[in-house]
Amino acid sequence: MTRHDPSQETTDDPRVSTGVQGLDDILAGGLMANRLYLLEGQPGAGKTTLALQFLLAGRERGESGLYVTLSETEEELHAVARSHCLSLHDIALFELASSKHAFGATLEQTLLHPWEVELGETVKLITDKVEATDPVLVVFDSLSEMRLLAQDPLRYRRQILALKQFFAGRNATVLLLDDMTASQERDLQLHSLCHGVITLERLSQHFGPARRRLEVQKMRGIRFRAGYHDFNIEHGGLQVFPRLIATEHHRPFVGAPVPSGIAALDALLDGGPLRGTSTLVTGPAGAGKTTVALQYIDAACRRGERSVLYEFDERTGTLITRAAKQGIDLEAHMNAGLLVVKQVDPAELSPGEFDAMVRHEVEAHGARMIVIDSLTGYTISMPEEQQIVLQLHELLSYLNQQGVVTFLINTQAGLVGGMQGNGINVSFLSDAVLLLRFFEAGGRVRKAISVIKNRGGGHEDAIRELRIDQDGIRIGEPLTQFHGVLTGTPNYLGDGDPLLMERDDANA
User: Does residue 210 or residue 17 have the better pLDDT?
Assistant: First the structure.
């Protein structure tokens, strides 16, 4: 087994991988070697799984590992590994409770628990095992038992300090696990003794599975990404999704207009939305918001550009069927690899995981257009309004800096008359806003479309009729003879019948 030699250090600090790619990214490469770290969290947060990944990553590098357990049996550790299809061969396991040497020669036939042994004897057994195996990586599970053994906070602190000094001379990287069951609050004294502290949390939701997140409380000598980071316990171990910071991602691009293939629709936005901008398509349910976005997707795929549609609300099969009735063959684009439609369940998906999905499509597959349908489904994944806005702002900023065209579908409450938003004001985050409305004329329910703003350039200020049928999307003439269309209760101010697209069709 290999070991880091301090005499061979370069100007760069040696790093040790945690075995979790996302966590290594948060730590800018991993943990500093030959230091003592604390991994804390309530039972079920994922500490044991992460600790095993830490040792297994070391095994892949040819580094010896030792897992000292006071709280779990050796069989339980193997069971955890098997649940992730992992093997603990070549990892030394020391189960203190089953060690006959733990209780002296006179107690060899007596089964006792670790807390029945004097703290000093327990620590000596651990140090003897370390000296015998000489590991490069050590996991100690868990500190709660030692805290119970000590009974006195001062004595406990002295023993932890003694362990720290013992390992300091052995060039070993040590991970101390604390399940936080022996105290109601975090042990800040323990925090001060350790080189770094990582906290895992498991949060129960009112509906759906529990959410997990981690935070690097401190890390001496390392620039790390602060704040909370979502993670899942998947088959194979922890999957961590580092918090997205848009300023870290930028690539040059030309902010050219992106056409829809319909001249009248493009004219509303002075040629179309620009690359590196986001467009909010808002209006009541059934007004045609998704269809407008699909028109841009269809045009992008015809140009050979990859698009991704994240569908929170509508079933994929239904979407494909109704798009085909309007002349848009989504299935052909999907078969050609130019379109990906991902059905998203917001109850099962954390915001950090969603950001990671989007990043993967943009960076690994070169997606140039992203559609989120709808914001209502997206916001369900984050119950706190302020966090929703911040999360979405960071995601849109990232996509903008990547030169991606983004469409956000927003469903307003109500169908006709005065409508209100969904409680989350995101219009200020968008570079352009397309507003769709229903209005009544000639005894029929009709649709109108208008542009509220366009930061990327000029836009038409007229309110036009919108027609969606088997011929696709058609944009009519400005509704100059109507007043109050945007309120949902328009008045017809003309002298004769309104000249709308149905009338044009009849006269054609």
Answer: 17
Strand partners, 465: 448
* CA neighbor of 15 nearest in space, from 191, 160, 196, 163: 196
Helix, strand, or coil here: 152? coil
**CATH number attached to the domain at 6-243:** 3.40.50.300
In this structure, the strands spanning 237-241 and 137-141 are unpaired
Nearest-angstrom CA–CA distance, 283 and 287: 6
The dihedral through the CA atoms of 44, 48, 51, 55 has a sign that is negative
Q: How far is CA 443 from CA 70, 446, 497, in A?
A: 78, 9, 12
The CATH superfamily of 248-507 is P-loop containing nucleotide triphosphate hydrolases (3.40.50.300)
Alpha helix stretches (DSSP H) within 135-288: 143-150, 153-168, 188-193, 263-268
In this prediction, residue 377 carries a pLDDT of: 79
3-state secondary structure of 189: helix
- Is the pLDDT at 150 greater than 90, yes or no? no
pLDDT tens, residue by residue, 297-310:
999 999 999 999 99
Q: Which two tokens stand for residue 98?
A: 């089953």
The label of the residue with tokens 């580094």 reads: 63
